[in-house]
Specification:
This protein has 443 residues and is of the alpha/beta class. The chain has two domains: 11-47 and 340-441, Aspartate Aminotransferase, domain 1; 63-329, Aspartate Aminotransferase, domain 2 (3-Layer(aba) Sandwich). The protein is 40% helix and 14% strand. It has helices spanning 11-21, 31-45, 63-74, 88-102, 116-128, 146-155, 171-180, 203-215, 278-282, 297-310, 315-329, 335-339, 341-355, 385-393, 425-441; strands at residues 50-51, 111-114, 137-142, 158-163, 185-191, 219-223, 254-259, 272-276, 359-360, 364-365, 368-369, 375-379, 397-398, 400-401, 413-416. The strands form four sheets. Strands 2-8-7-6-5-3-4 form a seven-stranded mixed β-sheet, with helices on both faces. Helix 1 crosses helix 2, helix 3 (63-74) packs across helix 11 and helix 13 runs parallel beside helix 15. The structure holds pyridoxal-5'-phosphate.
Length: 443
């Protein structure tokens, strides 16, 4: 309900569309529900929103990826099933990419194309979470990507989580140990850079995670959906430091999910990469035989999980990614520069919000200010996130609440910068000024 009869978006239409949407509480609505609601309001009012709710890439994919895919289709791959573990040249190129930009060695055998990082996570839960009956729970370092918890619900698997906000640096050790020492955690998952907060774990924190993963035999599922996008350090030169920070430098008990949706703007192709460490790929877990053809971890991932989920990843998309990675590995394309425009948008948007009375919620990595990147989090004095989101909808601005991400910062919203063009900054400024006048200046 709007408290102001003259908000930038006709409040009657907003009220009507909210009612029709079937959303009971806007604060707990999923990202896709908010997308659908705002689509409806835009259609009915003819007014464009400042859309900050969904992480859709707002940039063009690499030309090489398009060419690679077209060539593959012309060569007839559409009628052929791909190998489940991925086409050989792509597996080699993924391994090379990991060497070039993380500086670790993963055998091409453990480099698997997947139907997005979404499928990589699902497959990993199916195997990592079933390898030992005593270890039946995933631990999320939150805030996090809500769909991974949804995947647990769909699978009937258990999870626990905590908000890392209060446990940065050395404090992370004690907090993690409290969970891991109970012996029931199979997998530890976090995204880095983090969706939604854009915090980045420091080397010290990654080292703590690696040490504890070894001590308690926990598999770390490191979600690198925003690979290279901590723009404070330029990791873009193949084979040269600095490299993408990763727990893989500190333990062998890892799997890396490298989405190509954001770093390569290939979200529509539904292709991502999963890298299983050489040691973990080889390990045998007798319990796996109950579900999969044999006891091998890597074997179960390929011929158990990925086989039954989709029997591999789209054939032509593999050739597209192959060509893009080749270009990046050879230093012909700088994929970090390609996505750097997000940082500039984030900087501008944060500035506009702060000028108009809003605050940033997650704002530091230990002692360093956060990078400008794909997401940031914000709040408004005296309002819970749910109320703030509901009110912003009347001002032509959409986002999601941090509530649904496992964050304890219930006052916060997540903004995604990818769909907000520079041409919309004036509009954003005007709407925020109106919001401020109606909510701060009038108090
Ligand atoms: C943290 C995180 N993990 C995984 C994904 C899913 O990536 P993909 O599009 O490769 O399935 C996303 C997408 O937004 C994400 O933010």
């Amino acid at each position: 309900m709007s408290t102001n009869p003259s908000t930038p978006i006709d409040p009657q239409i907003v009220d009507q569309k909210m009612q029709q949407s079937g959303i009971e509480q806007i604060g707990t609505a999923s990202i896709r529900e908010i997308v659908a609601l705002v689509n409806e309001i835009e259609k009915a009012t003819g007014t464009r929103y400042i859309r900050m709710e969904m992480g859709v890439p707002g940039l063009e994919p690499p030309q090489e990826a398009i060419e690679g895919e077209i060539e593959a289709l012309q060569n007839g791959v559409a009628s052929k099933y791909p190998m489940i573990e991925g086409i050989k040249p792509l597996k080699n190129e993924i391994s090379r990419f990991i060497k070039n930009f993380i500086h670790i060695d993963v055998d091409p055998r453990g480099c698997l194309p997947t139907v997005g990082a979404m499928q990589a996570a699902f497959a990993s839960f199916l195997v990592a979470g079933r390898r030992d009956p005593a270890k039946d729970t995933t631990l999320f370092i939150d805030p996090g990507f809500p769909v991974q918890k949804q995947q647990h619900k769909v699978l009937g698997m258990k999870y626990e989580s905590f908000d890392v906000y209060n446990y940065r640096g050395e404090q992370l050790r004690e907090k993690l140990e409290a969970h891991l020492s109970q012996g029931h955690i199979s997998t530890l998952l976090y995204s880095n850079p983090n969706n939604p907060s854009w915090i980045c774990l420091t080397e010290k924190e990654l080292q703590i995670i690696g040490e504890l993963a070894d001590r308690y035999d926990v598999i770390v599922l490191e979600d690198l959906a925003y690979f290279g996008m901590d723009f404070r350090r330029d990791i873009s030169q193949p084979g040269e430091p600095p490299y993408q920070p990763s727990v893989a430098h500190y333990t062998d008990n890892y799997m890396l999910m490298i989405s190509s949706s954001k770093s390569f703007s290939l979200a529509g192709e539904r292709i991502g990469m999963l890298a299983i460490s050489n040691g973990l790929f080889e390990r045998q877990f007798p319990k796996l035989r109950e579900f999969y053809p044999n006891e091998g971890f890597g074997y179960s991932m390929v011929y158990g999980a990925l086989y039954t989920l989709s029997a591999g990843t789209n054939h032509s998309a593999q050739y597209g990614l192959l060509k893009a990675l080749k270009s990046v590995n050879e230093g012909k394309r700088n994929f970090v520069e390609d996505v750097r425009p997000y940082a500039e948008r984030a900087r501008m948007m944060k500035e506009l919000l702060q000028e108009n009375g809003f605050n940033l919620v997650y704002d530091r990595d230990e002692d360093k200010p956060l990078a400008d990147g794909f997401y940031f989090t914000f709040s408004f004095p005296g309002m819970e996130g749910r109320e703030l989101l509901e009110r912003l909808i009347y001002y032509g601005i959409s986002a999601i609440t941090l509530d649904i991400t496992g964050s304890e910062r219930t006052e916060g919203l997540r903004a995604c910068v990818s769909q907000v063009g520079k041409d919309q900054m004036d509009q954003l400024q005007q709407r925020l000024q109106r919001f401020r006048q109606d909510h701060l200046d009038s108090v």
